[in-house]
Amino acid sequence: MGTTGMILAVHLKQAGCEVAICDFDIEKMNLIRHNGIHLEGMISKSSYFDYVCDSVEELLELGIDVLVSCVKTYHVPALLNSLDNLDKNIHILSAQDGIDICQKYIKICKESQIMRMVVNYAGNILTQNTVKVTYFNSQSFLGSINDRCPEKADWLANSIKKGGHDCQHLDSFQLRDEVWKKSLIVAAIGPICGISKLNLQEAMNNEDSVEIIEQTLIEGMEVAKAEGVKFDDNYVQLCLRMLKEAGDHLPSLGIDIRKDEKNEIDFFNGKIVRYGKKHYIQTPLNLTFTNVVNAMHFKKINGHSI
Amino acid sequence: MNPKKYKIGVIGLGPVGLMLGHYFNKANCDVVLCSRNEEHIDLIKSEGVHLAGTKDERSQFSEICSSIEDLVKSNVDIIVSAVKAYQIDSVLHEINLHNRNPSLMIIAAQNGIGIVDKYSFLFDLSKIFRFVINFAGNMNAPNVVNVTFIISPNYIASVDDSRPDISKWIEDVLSSVELFTKSVDSFELTKETWHKTILNASLSPLCAISKLTMREAMKIPDTNEIIERIIMEAMEVAKAEDIRFEKNFVKLCLRYLSKAGNHFPSLAVDLLNKKQTEIDFINGQLVQYGRKHYIRTPLNLTFTNMIRAITKENLKSNQPTLTNVNE
């Protein structure tokens, strides 16, 4: 129940779905149980939930049809441990950003059970049950990762749309393109803002940082193209225009780096580097950000023993 | 060698200025220090200069000026300019304003590329000398340098090779007190300048941005990879400038850097203290020369631009507000 999970839960609930929510944080879940979840900022919505669980086991006992996974990418292995012997009728919707996230879920279920959402909204946690929505106006995308459960994906996309957030159902190839496009943007701004502590507005108003953002995007695009991803005309310039207008919003990757917390860089810049190697495309900017961020975190964990 | 042959003035009393002042003084030269900070002057006058850390040496100075005008009027023959690279323009402007001595010589004691261009704007090339510094330290107090390393030799040259006698005199003077310094021709010096700059470029901004000490950056495989790539990228640019490298240069650099201490390079210290940095004379120059030769320098560009962007915000937030001006 972070930003993504809370916003999604409220929209599904407001669409009339039966929604059960789950988090290990008992205090937080007690608060939500009694006071519901509140969204403020760019939108203003509140929902109360009948089913509030403190464990995955409890959640699964409710007979759910779709498990929406909104945990941080590095928490997925722990989640998977709780999902051993997952019922083959349950579908998983991975609502995480980053490249190749779904590969992790294949360990516990079939590809046909997995759906993916490219989340194009964002916010900050104000209190344990309140999210300030800072970015909302773009369309999100959702699909089955091997096109085997299009009905369920279509139903979910329509439900989210009915709840008030524009979400489009795509086939797996279109969805892969959107995953890459979103990841390239996060990779271009997350580490720069995280390391430099500039907010997005400051970074986009500084010609030095804009140059790096543009080059990081171009570098990632080359790799993505080698993977078959298709881009609109003027993609880089359109991204820069969108980022310039995005205001104070910062992806969680940047926030985590800034706080020197465990972060998801290996699924953004790190993946661009790996796919670059696969296609013999150099990715020096993405390599620099991946390695610097990982080294900073390594120092935090290992401290004086370096 | 007559140590009294030329009177030396030193501007910029950071680690480089104080160490050079100390060694010229130790060699019995006439040395005048120059600082605008009266408290620093009083401290140096009363307690002298102390080199600590890997050294434990002290020296006393009888002549200390509080302005460049006074320094120039004190009949110095050679001025050692040891200010930060971004301060060179204003210092030279002031020297030029007050100097009436057509023979006055100046030693540029900054590391980095493109430094001499700044001096040659106001000084005749025959009066300019360039020092490649292979020692470093941090300031423990305004008169105390914590010397972190001295690796021989340092290099000195007349930038147009017209005054090898002066650079030889400096070699003799400094080497006599074991600050081993080698007088070379200008081409050799350019090569050493690039070599030294490449070493600085590979570690300084990385440490500044990641907040890793030099030793930590060298020990972590992720950052070690970046360091090696920066060196390789810079070498390509240098080669286009006709700089020659010894065999195994990259590996030798890494070996040299692996002995780096568990402290921050000066560029990192400046950034962490929210001060201006010398990035434009280090990685920034590699980017510029890369552009000249149509060679991509993405790592150097990334670090240059990151440091510049952070510095811009830092300096903005350091600017006095109406409230604290009134205070």
How does this model look, in words?
The complex is a heterodimer of chains A (306) and B (327). Helices cover 47% and strands 15% of the residues of chain A. With 306 residues, chain A is of the alpha/beta class. Chain A folds into two domains: 3-170, Rossmann fold (3-Layer(aba) Sandwich), CATH 3.40.50.720; 176-305, N-(1-d-carboxylethyl)-l-norvaline Dehydrogenase, domain 2 (Orthogonal Bundle). Chain A has a five-stranded mixed beta sheet. In chain A, α4 links the parallel β5 (66-69) and β6 (91-94). The longest helix of chain A is centred in the middle third of the chain and has 25 residues, at 172-196. In chain A, 47% of the residues are buried. Chain B is α/β, with parallel strands linked by helices and 327 residues long. In chain B, a hairpin with a 2-residue loop joins β9 and β10. Chain B folds into two domains: 7-184, NAD(P)-binding Rossmann-like Domain (Rossmann fold, 3-Layer(aba) Sandwich), CATH 3.40.50.720; 190-314, N-(1-d-carboxylethyl)-l-norvaline Dehydrogenase, domain 2. Chain B has helices at 15-26, 38-47, 68-73, 88-98, 115-120, 164-176, 186-210, 214-219, 221-240, 249-257, 266-272, 283-292, 298-318, 322-326; strands at 7-11, 30-34, 49-53, 57-59, 63-65, 78-81, 105-108, 128-132, 135-141, 144-150, 154-158, 181-183. Helices cover 49% and strands 17% of the residues of chain B. At the A-B interface, α6, α8 and α12 of A face α7, α8, α9 and α13 of B.
